[in-house]
Amino acid sequence: MNEKEIVDIEEKIMANTFSKRDRVITRGKGTIVWDINGNEYIDCTGSYGVCIVGHCHPRVVEAVQRQVETLIACHASFYNDARSEMLEKLIGIAPKGLGKVFLSNSGAESVECAIKLARRYSGKHEIVAMMGAFHGKTMGALSATWKQKYRGPFMPLVPGFKHVPPNNLEKVREAITDKTAAVLVEPVRGEGGVLLPSDDFLPGLREICDEKDVLLMFDEVQTGFGRTGKVFACEHWNVVPDVLCLAKSVAGGLPMGATFAREEVMAAFQRGEHSSTFSGNPLVCAAASAAIDVLVEEKLPERAASLGNYFKGKLEGLAEKYRIVREVRGLGLMLGMELRFDVYNILLECMERGVLVLDAGRNVVRFLPPLVIEKEQIDKVVEVLDVVMEKENR
Ligand SMILES: Cc1ncc(COP(=O)(O)O)c(C=O)c1O
């Protein structure tokens, strides 16, 4: 199929829910992807934060190849070697105390599981979430998501969700009632604009949740798996939640979600109350096993911390040079550059010059590169941004 045929078919047949970029991507390796015409791009989207270990990491490829010839499907009502091996590794990297996990297929599903678990464990139905939060677009996750653009057309949503301003412990305290099951929060808000919490916010939430006897649930779908310079972002503040959601990157590019919980919390689910046909699929588990090995052996969180500092420093250099930049922020290799205007043009101009970047809201350029990115590639990204911003700054 040629480029036009590929585009035409997607346009004609696929639900029209994605803002498409004008490129057909056909190949990827590490931090680089190629389009159908052989043009090369440094991928600072990481496929929306999925490609922590890089595109087609050889260990993931080898694990998938091995497993695909052995067993692809095995429902979780049977035991399986690939799943069992992966589960031990997964719990090995989880924050201490989170000893149980439910496996699913996406970020939204991992959040759905957390919401149901909170209700089941507490016998209550209210959840306190944050203004500006993003937790996914299925009905439960959407009810926790803040943006009216996503929520508005689908009312009425799941009842019982209250949104409070982030970094305001008093408002959280006020929002908790005798019907509250949990407080749900992204340690660093991703889609909302790469926004860090104030230093006292997560520890304060832990205290309030303990005091009020409600569950503290962290959505680490975007921040987890080394992205921010620790395996989980909550480690930066030494706070362990009762429930933690992970997805995006955990299976090296294949779809997997994971909802971790303390043992007695997860014990609230009775048999049959929550399940998914593909939960713990062996092929995906084999990929996740390899991705966890890569994360640990290649010390990717440490790499994210040091390269993130380097990258952030370079972006701050651009901020000094161009008054169109309002702020540079982020943690590890989860970085955002807030501009004084809509960033869409910047995204397109960067793409024309071989660099793929994301937005986060209207005016933030977001960087979620694979953690295997090289210093020279960061330099190239900054060079391209420099050229593009010079043009836009006029
Ligand atoms: C923090 C967070 N939670 C949940 C989700 C939803 O994940 P998915 O798109 O895999 O359903 C996302 C996706 O970007 C996210 O960033």
Brief characterization of the structure:
The protein is an alpha/beta fold and 394 residues long. It is built from 14 helices and 15 strands.
Q: What's the helical proportion of residues?
A: 25-40%
What's the alpha carbon Rg, rounded to whole Å? 21 Å
Q: Strand order, biggest sheet?
A: 4-10-9-8-7-5-6
Q: Characterize the largest beta sheet: strand count, sense, and whether it forms a barrel.
A: 7 strands, mixed
Topology, number of strands: 15
Report the portion of residues in β strands.
15-25%
Protein described:
It is a single chain. The radius of gyration is 21 Å and the shape is globular. It has 394 residues and is of the alpha/beta class. The mean pLDDT is 98. The protein has a 7-stranded mixed β-sheet with strand order 4-10-9-8-7-5-6, with helices on both faces. Strands 1-2-3-13 form a 4-stranded mixed β-sheet. A 4-stranded antiparallel β-sheet has the order 11-12-15-14, covered by helices on one side. Helices cover 39% and strands 17% of the residues. It has helices at residues 3-13, 46-49, 58-68, 81-93, 107-122, 139-144, 148-151, 169-175, 201-212, 263-266, 282-297, 300-321, 344-352, 375-393; strands at 25-29, 32-35, 40-43, 100-104, 126-130, 161-164, 180-185, 215-219, 243-246, 257-261, 325-331, 334-339, 355-356, 358-359, 364-367. A hairpin with a 4-residue loop joins strand 2 (32-35) and strand 3 (40-43). Helix 4 packs parallel to helix 11. Residues 48, 106-108, 111, 134-136, 186, 190-191, 219, 221-222, 247 line the site of pyridoxal-5'-phosphate.
